[in-house]
Amino acid sequence: MSRKEDILSRIRENIRKSYDMPDISRIKGIQYPDVIKQFEEISKTVGGKVVKAVPGEDINSIIKELYPDAKIFASNLPEITIASKNPDILEAHELNGTDVGIIKGQIGVAENGCIWIPQTMKERAVCFISEYLVIIISGKNIVNNMHEAYSRIKMNGYGYGCFISGPSKTADIAQALVMGAQAARGVTVIITE
Question: Which residues are in the LUD domain (predicted)?
Answer without folding.
Answer: 94-191
